[in-house]
Structure formats: C-alpha cells, structure tokens
Amino acid sequence: MIEKTTHISFFERFLLGRSWWLLPLFAWTALVVWLLATNIERIKTTNMEIARNSAQNFFQIVELTRLWNAGHGGVYVPITAQTLPNRFLKIPDRDVLTTSGQKLTKINPAFMTRQLTELIELQSHVSFHITSLKPLRPQNKADTWEYGALQQFEQGVDEVFERTNGEPAEVFRYMAPLFVKKPCLKCHEVQGYQLGDIRGGISVTLDAGNLFGGEARALSVEVGKHVGVYLLLVIFVLLFLEKMRQNWLQLQYIEQQQEMVIRERTRELELLVTQDGLTGLFNRKALDDQLASEMSRSGRYHHQLSMLMLDIDYFKKVNDVYDHQAGDKVLKMVSKWMQGSIRASDFAARYGGEEFIILLPETRVDYAYDLAERLRRKIENGVVTSDEGLEIGITVSIGVAAYPDHAENMYDLVKAADKALYRAKRQGRNQVVMAIAQDDLQ
To answer: Deepest in the core among 4, 35, 123, 291, taking most CB within 10 A?
Structure first.
C-alpha cells in the first residue's frame, strides 16, 4: 500500500502551534505601544502649545501696554505710598504739581510693568519680570533661566518656553525679547541702544497646575483606552484562533478516522481478493502472484525455491461419514497446523478443495522434505472433533519439489510437486514423496 505523504502548510503550523501566535501578538503590541506613545506625545505637545499661547498673549498685552506708555512719553499718576517717584528715571519733569496742588510723578513703561505684575499676582497665578543683560534697576537682574533665554535672543531665537520645577510647585515659563523702538530711545539711548536692538525681555511665569492639571487625567484616559482596546483584541484574537485550532483538530481527527476506515475497508477488500474465506490462507490468485514473484527473485539471485503440495487423504469420506461442517473443521485445522509449522517468510495457500501449497523461499529441497515430514506427523497425531463430539483422524499426502532441482519455471514446479503428490497417494497415502530430479528424468 502506498503511504500518503502530507505537506504541512505555514497556515497549519501557525494554527496548530500556539507559539506562532506570539508573532501577531508582538506586532499588535508594538503597534499599540507606538500609537499610545504618539498620542501621549500629541497630548503633551498640545498642552505645551496651549500654555505657550496663553503666555504669549500675556506677553503681548504687557508689551502693548508698555508701547502705549512709551508712545505718550510716560504717564503721570498721583504720588502714593504704592507709587513713589522712580529714582531711576532721570528726567527734569519727573515730578509735577498741578494747579490744584496735587503732586504727580511720571511712571515709565518699566515702572508700570512692575505695578501691573504686582496687581496681577494678587488676583491670579501669573507673574511677569522685565529684565535685560544690562538692567538699570538691580531688581530687574535676570535669574539663571532668564539669563540663558536672553543669551539665546542675542543668537536670533524668537522665544523660549519650558515646563520646569518651581517653588513651591511646577511652573511654565515663557520669555520673549523686547526690541528697541523709537519711543524707547528717550530713556535707553544713553545706554548705547539703537533702534531695533534687543534691550531685554519679559518673562511670564504661569502656574503649571492650572495649565496642565487635566493632562494627567487625559493621559490616564488615553492609556486606559489603548490598554482596553489592546486587551479586547488580544482576547478576541486568541479565542478566535483557539476556536479555529479546535475546529481544525476536529477536522483532522475526522479525516484520520475516515482514512482508518478506508484503510480497513481496503484491507478487507484485499483479503477478499487474496484470502480464502474458509481457512484464512491465501487463495489461488494470491498463490499465482506470489509464486511468480518468488520464481523471479530466486532466478535473479540464484536461490532455491521449494514447494510442498499437500492433499488430505480420503477427505470425501469425512464429508460423507460426518457432514460438510466436519469437513470444514478439518480444512481449518489443517490450515492452522500448516501456519504453525512454517516461517514468517513462507507462504501457505489453499490450492483448491482439500489441496494446499506451501512456498519455502531460499530453502533447500532436503530441508523442505524434513519440514513436510514433521507436518505430516503433526497432522497424523492431531485430532479434529466434530460438532457431535466425535474424533476425526486424518492424514495427508505431501509432494515435495524445488527450483531449480525439479523445474526451470513456475508451471513445471507445480507439475513436479503434483506428480510427487500423486506418487505419494498411489504408494498408499500418509507419506511424503520427493519429486524426481530433472537429470534423473533424462
């Protein structure tokens, strides 16, 4: 029988080997991590842009207020405990007295910025600081962060912003440069500034808690969404793959069962074609095929092939005296004794009626004769019991022939064994007779 060869496809290996499922799992994990990282970065970038825009708006409002002040050459306000004359403003008309006797002092853009900062700080979490690399007022000296920003402005940077740790909490800092404009030269020309120069900058400090307070929650929600979608899809895919795997295994099991049934039915059909239904030995057709094969092999490798032809003596009397069921029992027992007396490589077949043939590959004729004699005695000493409990004694006659001693082909080998069997019967039955050698016939 030709064995069926199966080719396992990649899909089958992937489906049946759970370790292969790690490949799409790793790919899905990498994709989700990448999407999550991208969205987290987008949230942080968006929040930073919102914070930057807020600080930039504060800066622009302060800058416009300063320009308004500078455009008017300063603004006179009443002198109070909070607004004292600016000792750093060196102009002859800094302080004036109105006709009604009220004392006024001029405040420049820098002084006004400081007062706005103090007022805004009282009402919100925003603070401003005007500073430069060459401040007139010591309090306007830049801190470390502002000093670094001012140096970047000198190198052409438009603005600097950063989310950083502050006291007592995290803050967002923003700073943009102040350029010298025409109204500014009135006070700052003495410092050597020219129109368009960077004379300093204004830093805006915002409470990060107000700006980024919702960021942690947004990030948590984003992580939760991605983890949830990730787990749901992983669970769904694993369940789906496991279901497909079980279905595939079930189909394979059904296919294997079907193949087993087919093999069993095929074997049964082969037995029907090659096996004798009563004795279980091979039949005449199988004998012809086997004899042709063994003759060909013996001729090719120069081996001897011996044959025993066996006939049950007075078998017709068994059927007549007892019955045909008893005859069938005799045939079965003789077949059983034959099978128990030969090798696995030997071949026993029912030749027809009560005649049997045994093929003995690679066996010398004298060994074949000894085997035939042992088998004859075994059958002679054996007992077959009929359905009625009667003992039936039987004997057999056996003719022995061999290739190439007694024949040159399969047909002559059968004839030689048959003639030897005929001689055994004619000489009184219950004996083994060797065929006559070809040389003796000539």
So the answer is: 291
CB-based contacts of 407: which residues, under 8 Å, 6+ apart?
401, 413, 415, 416, 438
Quote the distance between the C-alpha of residue 324 and its chain's center.
68
Task: Return the C-alpha torsion angle 335, 336, 340, 343, nearest 10.
Answer: 40
pLDDT value of residue 58: 84
CA distance 308 to 289: 17
Using alpha carbons, select from 335, 369, 372 the residue that is nearest to residue 351: 335
Question: Which of these ranges, 128-132, 217-221, 270-274, has the smallest mean pLDDT?
Answer: 270-274
Q: What is the pTM of this model?
A: 0.51
Tell me the helix, strand and coil percentages in the chain, rounded to 5: 55, 20, 25
**Bridge partners (DSSP) listed for residue 311:** 355, 397
**Domain layout of the chain by residue ranges:** 14-73+108-215, 284-441
CA 37, CA 306: separation in Å to the nearest integer? 86
**Chain centroid to CA 303:** 58
Question: In angstroms, what CA-CA distances link 298 with 239, 301, 302, 436?
Answer: 63, 5, 5, 20
| Structure-block tokens of residue 406 | 């007694």
Domain 284-441 has CATH 3.30.70.270: yes
What does DSSP say about strands 75-78 and 198-207: parallel, antiparallel, or unpaired?
Answer: unpaired
Q: Other CB atoms closer than 10 Å to residue 415's CB: what's the count?
A: 15
The yes-or-no verdict on residue 112 having pLDDT over 70 is: yes
Hey, what CATH class is 14-73+108-215 in?
Answer: alpha beta
Q: Using alpha carbons only, what angle is made at residue 294 by residues 292 and 300, rounded to the nearest 5 degrees?
A: 105
